[in-house]
Request: fold
Amino acid sequence: MHDDHNIHEVSAKILINVAHPAMQHVMRLHAPAIAKTAQPGQFVHIQVAKGPYLRRPISLMLCDPIKGTIDILFKVVGEGTRLLAAKKAGEALQLCGPIGVAFSITDTSRRYLCIGGGVGIPPMIFAADRIVAAGARPIVFAGSEVPFPFALASSNFLLPGIPAQAMMTIQSLEARNIPCRLASNNSELFGCHAGYVADLAALWLAALPPQALQEVTILSCGPFPMLQAVAALGLRFDVPTFVSLEEYMACGIGACAGCVVETHEHDGTHYRRVCVDGPVFDATVLRW
Ligand SMILES: Cc1cc2nc3c(=O)[nH]c(=O)nc-3n(C[C@H](O)[C@H](O)[C@H](O)COP(=O)(O)OP(=O)(O)OC[C@H]3O[C@@H](n4cnc5c(N)ncnc54)[C@H](O)[C@@H]3O)c2cc1C
Ligand code: FES
Reply:
């Protein structure tokens, strides 16, 4: 895992804030200092309004160090994200970032299997973008029970083990030659695997020859039950597995211990802060 303590506090101009079904929003901000160093798995801590509001942690979905932009995807679940959704292009947001330990994606001999669910999809998109840029091989499986907040397309990649009817992919990934497939239990979402995203990933893993399986590393972010299923996949297929946790946070900078999780490491039990010791952890050290 990659740790970068280069945290900036910036006033970032909102360039776009696009509403998608099910109260999902994709926002692009001008934040050059953050875009320059951010790595997949890291997040920004956003002040959603003036006053007594805690900052809200939101993962980075894409960063363009040349244009100085960062993209985030968020879903309205409460007051903080409702305030964020109401922001208009041209307004400025105060935010800190990039924060946290990123996914380690530097080994170009690995095949990175990126499994994202719901608002856990953004770090997987960022990871796949950087993995392919580094000349390595990502593959993305994304799950959602509400319409995906991305342009979708039919994929031209053939993937072992994946049923032919699960043919839809995220257009921007297909354009970058990143194989991807979608899963949903929502029967209205056309071209998705009917079921959970971890089960879709299991079909692909089960179809790999032993040599190819040995090259796989799993990266994942999503709701806790999905991460439990992904951690079980890692054990079942004996594949290194790293997950990004979305724990409740207060300070977001390691000062309050409000986000602690218990880990079981080679030298014993530890209490790690998700905000700065994570959010990315080796799945085998967590208690599921
Ligand atoms: C490292 C990290 C990255 C995140 N990345 C994203 C992202 O990319 N996109 C996104 O939409 N959300 C993300 N989240 C979750 C997001 O921070 C919360 O949804 C947000 O803070 C809720 O604020 P609120 O004021 O709208 O809701 P609140 O009023 O605070 O809560 C509304 C509901 O959401 C639940 N909730 C609040 N915070 C969390 C949390 N951290 N985990 C689980 N449930 C929570 C509450 O229990 C409540 O039911 C991330 C969280 C973390 C810790
Ligand atoms: S939120 Fe304060 S230590 Fe993590």
